[in-house]
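As promised in the previous annual report, we have extended the structural survey to additional targets. Below is the entry for Phosrestin-2.
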Amino acid sequence: MVYNFRVFKKQSPNAKLTLYLGKRDFVDHISGVEPIDGVVCIDPDYRDRKIFGQVICSFRYGREEDEVMGLNFQKDLHLATHQIYPPPDKQNLSKLQDRLSKKLGPNCHPFTFALPANAPASVTLQPGLDDEGQPCGVHYFVKLFVGECETDRSHKRSTVSMAIRKVQYAPSKQGKQPCTVVRKDFMLSPGELELEVTLDKQLYHHGEKIAANICIRNNSNKVVKKMKVMVQQGVDVVLFQNGQYRSTVASVETQEGCPIQPGSTLQKIVYLVPLLSSNKDRRGIALDGQLKRQETNLASTTLLASPDQRDAFGIIVSYAVKVKLYLGALGGELSAELPFILMHPKPDNRGKMIHADSQAEVEMFRQDTIDKEIDE
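The corresponding C-alpha cell record, generated without further manual editing, is:
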C-alpha cells in the first residue's frame, strides 16, 4: 500500500531555491509552539553561496492607503534566523524531512525553526468595502534568501517566501459552566430587579449554537419592556493603550414574554450562532489568519498561559454573551455578561503518519513579489 502526504512547494523567481513545507498551520500548545520544519532544494550553481532562513511576523496596524509623508504602519519581527547552507552542524531529521531528502537528492537541505511561546496568534482584521492593500493584523511567513550574512539585504530574484499561520485549538476538556446573577435597585422604589444568565457550557466550536438560559425576577415596581441578547467579540490591539473595542457578531432582540410586570418572573432560552457569513464586509471584525484561496471564519479566542504573556505586537480576541433588559426612559437598563471560549476542535491526525513507501502530493505556488506573498 502506498500512502500520500501533502507538501507545499514554492520556487524563487530565478528557480535556484525551492522551498518545501509539510504544512502551513503550526499549533500553539500554550506551553510551546510546534517547530517549523521543511527542506530547501538548492541549484548546483549556488553551491558556493550561503543560504539563510527566517521566520518573520508581520504586524500591520494601519491601512496602506494612509501611509503618506514617510509614515509606515507595519512592523516586521524576525522571530527566528539562522544559516541553512552550508549547514553549520548536523541536525536530527523529522519524518517529513527524511522522506523529502531521500526523494529530492543531495541538493536538498533541511531546516527547523522554533517560535517563542509568547508569539502572537495569526489574526486578520476584516477590511471595509473600500479598503485597499494588505489588511491589518498579524501575519507569518517563512523566508529563504541568498546572502553573505543573516542581516544581508535580500534580492527578490533569489528569495522565496511562503505564508504560514500560528493557530490554537480548543482544549480537550470543558471548563466550569458560566453563570452570573446581577441585581438592580431603584432610588425611592422598593424591591429590586434580578437577572440570572447561564450558558449550557463554556467552550463552543465555530458554527455551534450557543444557548443562553435567562431568568428574570422582577421584585421591583418597574416594568421590563424588552430584552436584547448579543454575542460580542472583544479585540485588544496590545500595541495601543486604547486599542480595545467590541463588535456585536450575533444578536436577538425580543419582546416575547414582555412586558414583565412587577412581581412577575420570566424564564426562557435564547439561541445564538456567531458566524462570519452574518458579518461580511464589516470593518474591524477579527478573523482567523487567512491564507490565500482558503475560506476563513471569525477569529478564535486567544488563550494565554498568563496575562503577562501578551506580546506587544499581538491581537487578543475574546467573546462574551451580553443580555440587556430595557426598562423604559426612567427605569434605565440592566445588563449581564458571560465570557466564553470559541475555537476550532483539534483535528484528528490519526492515519496521517508518513510511511516508508509514501508519495508526496505537491501543491505548487506561483512566485509573486515578496510583498504579495504575505497574502498567500
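Residues 95-104 form the longest helix (10 residues). The longest strand covers residues 74-85. These points will be discussed at the next consortium meeting with the crystallography subgroup.
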